[in-house]
């Protein structure tokens, strides 16, 4: 069954939403929410019914529900102020008030063949100059409040949109935000030289972040940082607290691999570096497959092959080894207590790259931070696992709170992290 209302066409069989004949990207839970409302158009649906249907009875915060309702309104061209299509009945629930007609699925519609992420993929590529003269490639896409996603291991602002590993995350982050992202120095389309960063700690990487923020006119903004980008985000937030409205940290650490005791079964630095130098640049080598599988053991063959290709095309073998030596020596442990931005910390419970204890240490060290453990083995988040939807729900709720004026910055005195 296909549902038509206002200028929208909702096709559950194809998981497709069209507005004015154009595909609109919709996250799975937002799509389910719209489907439930369309099926019962004109009827009041309580929050409890939505939670039972959309979230299968899980404990969900009001902020998460509000974020999904807001995303649904944006997808169908409505707003919280107008409520011409989706109305909130305060204290009671929600109602789709626009007239709804139905027809059989599978009817002709030329727009169905267009990629659902076409609009999101229209990005503008630019270059900024960091403090030491390094050229940093950056791009922005989407509309709405700004969100800055830091460069990490490994990215390419042009190739990311075609990578089945990174594209779903970029689409989700940019669904209702102006997403700004960049390639860290040494990788992607940024300057490949790393000599200025050797022995300099996080400072050059913080300066890269600063130049990208300034080039995009960002004065105060939330940050999404993963893995080695996490200490860079912490360093920036500590140095420029007035610029950071919130931190979303995934799979990160405060002390690099070379500065902490090795986890059980973890290879030492010398072994990793020798393997990189010997096997990097050969997409079909056993090393590249094994190395990439550590990051995401539950990846599909397509995701794994794409991730391998991305790494090979993004950085040369000697630079890969050099960059690993640099990021494995990042140390921001002494800065954690100085961070005042509201902070959300994610970490996979069985992460083979950085153990979950690193995520807990981040959350315990940053005043007021909230820790969300994910039931996953993947250092790189994958859309086919249940943890993906939990992560996106939490991110949506967190960003919605920031945009509404909360959560509040941490007090001057440290407070313990809470675990969600």
Automatic annotation (TrEMBL):
GO CC, one annotated term: membrane
Domain OmpR/PhoB-type: 1-98
Keyword Ribonucleoprotein in record: no
Alphabetical list of SUPFAM superfamilies matching this protein: alpha/beta-Hydrolases, C-terminal effector domain of the bipartite response regulators
InterPro entries assigned to the protein according to its UniProt record, in alphabetical order: AB_hydrolase_1, AB_hydrolase_fold, AB_hydrolase_sf, OmpR/PhoB-type_DNA-bd, Sig_transdc_resp-reg_C-effctor, WH-like_DNA-bd_sf
GO molecular function terms attached to this record: DNA binding; hydrolase activity
Protein keywords: DNA-binding, Hydrolase
Name of the protein in its database record: Adenylate/guanylate cyclase/hydrolase, alpha/beta fold family protein
Protein species of origin: Roseovarius nubinhibens (strain ATCC BAA-591 / DSM 15170 / ISM)
